[in-house]
Each structure stands twice: as structure tokens, then as C-alpha cells.
Amino acid sequence: MDSNKENIEAAPKNRVFISLPKKYMAGLSQRYALDHGLFITELDPNISEKYLISYFKEWGQITKCKIKNNFNSSKNCLADVWFSTEEEADRADWAGPHCIGGTESNVSRIVSPKIQNE
């Protein structure tokens, strides 16, 4: 078996969100091709994906946006927003705090191994 193939990890079949300090992302990127994004909590439940894309497009090209409604709470919706490059995700993160739709939301920088055919 080729020794280079032994060092390459297969990406998980389900998306995994990883939040870690920026200085450790380089090590992770040596083993995986990464998608870069933001994980948003305390999002107003009336915010739409279209609104969220419009809000974050100021910092770069949005490749994916998904809102997850928490039906047990009327105030705590979650979302993930993915950018085309690491630099764009960094700019959006560093621009905080983010007041989205009149409510201050918690925004965390995340990465995820790329999933083929997504």
C-alpha cells in the first residue's frame, strides 16, 4: 500500500462541526480538506435563511446556509453559514458582535471536513 494513502483520512459521511482555536486549524487542514463557516446561536426564530445570507454576504461568498429551529424554545434557533474561503469566514467572525435582525447572536468560527457530493 502506498504510504501517502495511509496518511489521508476519509471524510465522515455526516457533517461534523469543529470549533477550535485558529492556530490548530492548520494542523487539521493537513489531514482534511476543510469547509469554513460560522455557527450561530440565539438567533431570532423569525429570521430566514435568505435574510441570513443577505446579512453575511458583506464578508464573502456564502456557499451554504442552514437554520435549525429549536421547537422547544421560542428564542433559540441555530444556524450554520459556510463561506467559499477561510479568509471570508475569518472576516465575518472578526466583524462581530453580530446583531442579526435586531437581536445580538452568538457567533463561533467552525470548520468541517469537506463531504464529497455535497
TrEMBL record:
It comes from Ilyodon furcidens (goldbreast splitfin). The keyword Ligase does not apply. The keyword Transcription does not apply. SMART domains: RRM (SM00360). Keywords: RNA-binding. The lineage of its organism: Eukaryota, Metazoa, Chordata, Craniata, Vertebrata. InterPro entries: Nucleotide-bd_a/b_plait_sf, RBD_domain_sf, RRM_dom. Pfam families: RRM_1. Residues 36-92 form the RRM domain. It comes from the Eukaryota. This is RRM domain-containing protein.
